[in-house]
Amino acid sequence: MVNNMYYNHKYFIILILILSAPFFMGADIKNKTIKPTSPVKIQANEMRYYGTERKSTFHGNVVAVSDNYTLTSDDIVVFLNKDMDVSKIQCTGNVNFKSDDIVSISKRADLDHNKKVAVITGDVKVWQGENYLEGEKVFIYYEEERIVVDKGTEKRVTIIFKPENEGKK
């Protein structure tokens, strides 16, 4: 019984990490980096670049597509460091993520590539197959492989987890 509980707990942690992976936009788990690992094509109604602030803003029906995911949002702001590498990404309004087997929706997603932290807020819902995660705010600490899900003021955290071997005999 104890081994089974340990296995289920371990599997649950792995599941949560898999569910959160999309928010690192092509994260490289082996090297613990959250920088994109493949080209990203971004389309929007409007794009502006602010050189002195090292910031690009994308407004209106923003669609970011990579080899393995599609991210849509009302607005996306990309901050660059002095080496012109992506340091932070802010997605606001109708944030939707889709990959082969993961779908998520939220109102906002903030990714800090330097701190390797993502904060997803606003009625967060994530599906992976038949598994489901729901909360008001999700904190993902990539280097620590730690996730915190907050309930918000009006509802509790919900997780629906279907064991891999359910229904098999």
Automatic annotation (TrEMBL):
InterPro entries per the UniProt record, alphabetical: LPS_export_LptA, OstA-like_N
Species annotation: Mucispirillum schaedleri ASF457
Domain of life: Bacteria
Recorded GO MF terms: glycolipid transfer activity
Protein name as catalogued: Lipopolysaccharide export system protein LptA
Keywords per UniProt: Signal
GO terms under biological process: lipopolysaccharide transport
Gene behind this protein: lptA
One cellular-component annotation, GO: cell outer membrane
